[in-house]
Amino acid sequence: MDDVWTPESVADINTLSEYLSDCRLRDLNLSPPVDCMIVCASEALYGAETVFQALQDRAGVAKCLVLCGGIGHSTHLLYEAVSHHPRYSRVGDAVRGLPEARVLEVILDGFFERSLIISNGCQILVEDQSTNCGQNAAYSRQVLETAGFHTPSSLVVNQDPTMMLRTRASFEKVYEDLAVPVSVVSYPAFVPKLRLPASTPPAAWNLSSWRRSRAYGLWNGSSS
Known about the structure:
It holds the Pfam family DUF218. InterPro entries: Cell_Envelope_Assoc, DUF218, Rossmann-like_a/b/a_fold. It is built from 9 helices and 7 strands. Strand 1, helix 2 and strand 2 form a beta-alpha-beta unit.
């Protein structure tokens, strides 16, 4: 995509971003208690951070946390995000080669209080084999059922905003056989936005860590 922007094209991109981000929950502090929170690993680490912090701060907000993700074609982006993160960079070398869910687990154990989250009533599970949105949902269900969560009534799912809509659809599809529908709530943690500077293009993302090339590829279907 050429870096030639108009107010109209920026507005169109932002409309698409809002749609794909599928933001059903903007603040975890306002979330009612749910059966499970699921973090599908991505380079957008802010989502995992806010989930971990909410579980640490709010006793009873979730009965279970699933860290989700294996090793796939974009796992290297997660390694790079950790290596360049102002807080997590000290574990950048340690996480290379790990499945994405295990990368999140290293961050959880190194920078948050797992014991406090558990004492708050939340069981922590890891699904480290999935490599796409459909498998995220299917394998998470398997892990949950193995742990005794056979018929959850409510899930909050965090994912890279550009993949949030299809991730929610994947979880709804996986659980469609239950007699009582499962409430699947999308929590992208943020919605990427383009903005035009006061002068001329190029436009800029609202988060400095967001990769334009990654977002473009996801939006136009050239990556997944």
